[in-house]
Model the fold of this input.
Amino acid sequence: MKLIENIKNIARSNIKTIVLPEVEDERVLRAAVQAENEKIADIILVGNENNANKLANEKGINISKIKFIDIEKSNKLSQYAKKLYELRKHKGMTLEEACIKVLDPVYYGMMMVKCNDADGLVSGAAHSTADTLRPALQIIRTKEGQKLVSAFFLMDVPNCEYGENGVFIFADCALNEEPDSETLAEIAATSARTFEKLVQKESRIGMLSYSTHGSKVSELSQKVVKATEILKERYPNIKSEGELQVDAAIVPEVGRTKASKSDIAGTCNTLIFPDINSGNIGYKLVQKLAKAEAYGPICQGIAKPVNDLSRGCKVEDIVGVIAITAVQAQ
Done:
């Protein structure tokens, strides 16, 4: 079964409510209808209903069966504004400013999730990553006991025997630009838990570098060596290996040659990149050259699931991220 179809089945087992606040984007409306038709989530569209209906009529999209909240007509504006003010007054936000903020569909949607009126939110088709994640961190904040928010891509590579039959997590490809060893270790541990929840297989972490087990010694490679040591010490139950070149991480015969003492070298399915440059370049190369499906960037570490979309996303990409968000909310 294709990866995303399995995730959709998991989503159907415990239906969650997902907010889409970009109702003036044709792709979002089409994705909302498809997600509802496939019964992977209960969708709530948030924004200006007249504008959304006009676009839907022009494009032949029937959104009449999807719940819609026209913000300016909402009876929860005052409640959300007061709650936002309480959350942000220590940063200087006034009640008047909060009343203006909640008129923004992304902020309104975040308040729905914060107040348990929805389980998750997907945005980014028409907004920057910052426009999606800034209000998420201001309002929903991080999970208890966790300070770090990171992002990953769920990769599904066709006709591939590596990883988990072509399935990988690549992290962090979108948020943490130059993570230090401590941060890399936390990204790895969170990614392992995420992989096991979404893919329902055991994670095997490869801590990537341009060096394998000391073949090159530099500040860059030693950062990954230290991160691996921290990871193994703090999370001994997580299978991990590093530092590894990517071929030693995913190709069994190379793993056996370059890291002969490792139990998992050559079989890694959760790949942790040393910085955002290598992560972002890596996922796009695999996506374009191997014709892989790349779902993300998906966020991890936020108290409730909020996920960003690429502004170049397709309808199927949005539907996939809705399904992933719904599973994260379970």
